[in-house]
Specification:
- This protein is mainly α and 89 residues long.
- It has helices spanning 8-11, 22-47, 55-83.
- Helix 2 (22-47) runs antiparallel to helix 3 (55-83).
- It is flat and about 50 Å long.
């Protein structure tokens, strides 16, 4: 029987191309406010998975949804403004 360690190079060969490129890192950094807002929303939703949400829980979820939507709108507007010639939206 062959050990998986013996097949390690065949299963997951290491490549220098596994690191994210500068462009990918810039895209992640640009989207970070949205990622954090969506994490906050998930935290609020996960907190009430096994119980009935209280009024405070519902407010927290609504606030997190509004924050995520606002950040998404801001990023969309920035992307639209960047794609317009001359930067005018």
């Amino acid at each position: 029987m062959k050990s998986i360690a013996a097949l390690q190079n065949l299963v997951t060969p290491w490549s220098d191309g596994l690191e994210p490129s500068e462009a990918e890192l810039d895209a992640i950094e640009w989207e970070m406010p949205l990622i954090l807002a969506e994490v906050d929303l998930l935290d609020a939703e996960i907190a009430v998975l096994d119980r009935t949400p209280s009024e405070l829980d519902e407010r927290r979820i609504r606030r997190a949804r509004r924050k995520a939507l606002a950040v998404r709108r801001t990023l969309t507007n920035q992307a639209a403004a960047a794609s317009m010639p001359g930067g005018a939206a």
